[in-house]
Amino acid sequence: MGQAITSSLMALLPMLFKVLRSVCPVFRIGNTYLVTRADDVRQVFADDRSFGVPYREKLNVITGGEPFILGLEDGCHYRDDLAALRQVMRISDVEALGAKVGDLATRTVDAAGGRIDVVDMTRRISFEFLAEYLGVPPVEHGDLSTWATRLFEYQFVSSDRELRDEVDVIAPALRSHVLRTIERRRDLPDGRDDVLGRCLVMQEAGHPRFDDAWICTALVGMIVGGPPQPAMVLPQAFEQLLRRSDALAGALRAARANDDCRLAAYIAEAMRFDPLAPWMPRCALATRTIGTGRHARTIPAGARVLASMASAMRDGRRVPDPGAFNPTRTPDQYLHFGFGVHQCFGLEINRATLHRMVKPLLQRRDLRRARGPAGRLTKQGAFASTLVVEFGA
Q1: What is the total count of domains within the chain?
Q2: Which UniProt keywords apply (predicted)?
Q3: Are the C-beta atoms of residues 155 and 229 closer than 8 Å to each other?
C-alpha cells in the first residue's frame, strides 16, 4: 500500500510542478523551500557558498569521518581533492570505458535467452565495469552491489533506524575491504592501470594527497556514488521510450545504425521525463533572494532548499515545448547531472556509457514489454525496481 501511494504521488509531480512554476515558483512548506523554475534552480546550484550541500553528516558515517568531495563546500580543500581525483580518473579513459560497457552489455543480452530485467542488467553491468576500473574487487562475505546500493539509499533517500543499523555494519566492512585491497596491491604490485593502481603510483612518488585514508575514501565514495545510479535512471528512461512508439522507433534506428551520438540523445531526452531524482537538497548558508519580480522570495539562512531538476527540465521558459519528446535538444536544456561546483564528477563517464548499456538490447528484433505486471516499470520508493522486456534473436 505504501509503495502504491508513493507511486501515485510521484506521478502527480509533473502537474504539481507546472502549477507551481506558474503561480508560486519558490514554494515554502515550513522551513523548506521548493524551487521549480529552471533559472532559479540553476541559481541555487551555481551559488555553492550560499546553498551548500547537506551530505557531510551521512558521508561521515560511510567514510568513517574522512572528508569526500560530495560533502565539501567550494574552497581549497574541495578543489585540491577534485584535482587529485582527476589525476587518476582521466577524461582519456572514457572511450575505453564506453567500449568495455558495450562488450559487457552485448554478452549480457546474448546470454539472456530473449527475456531480461533492465534493472538487473544495468546494475550488473555498471558494477562490473566501474568496480574493475576503480580496482575494487568483489567482497568475500557479502555483495558489493548490495552494499553500495544500500549505502547510496542511506546517503540520499532514507534515514530510518533499520537502514542505519545496516549501514553501521556495511560501511566499516566496505572500508576494511578497500583498505585490505590497498595493502595487498602495494605489497604485491601487479602493474594494473586502474584507479587504485594510479593512486599507489602517486603515493610511491610522495604525493601528499595519496595516503591510504584518502585513497580508501575516494574509492568508497566512488563505488557508493557511481554504479548504483544507472540501474535507477536507465530503466526509467527505457520505460519512457516504451510508452512512446515514435521515440522507441527512433532509438531502435539509432542503435541498429551504430549511431551512438543519436542514441545518447534519445536516452538523454527519455531521462528528462523521469530523472534520477525529482530534486536535489541544499542548505541555505546565508539569506538569499531567489527569483525576480513578484515571484522573488527571500530564503533565510538555515532553511532547507529543494532544487527541482525534474521541474526545471520541463520549464517552457528554457525548454521549448517541454511536453514533446525531442532528441535534438541542446545540452543546456538538461540538468541530469546537476550544475555548478557539485556537478556529477562522473559526468563524462555517464555520457560515454549510459546509452551503451542498453544499445545491444535496442538492436534486437521484436523488442517489447514482457506480459503482465513484469513488463511495467515498478519502483521501490523513488527508484526503479523491475522492468522486464522480451526480444527476438
Answers
A1: 1
A2: Heme, Iron, Metal-binding, Monooxygenase, Oxidoreductase
A3: no
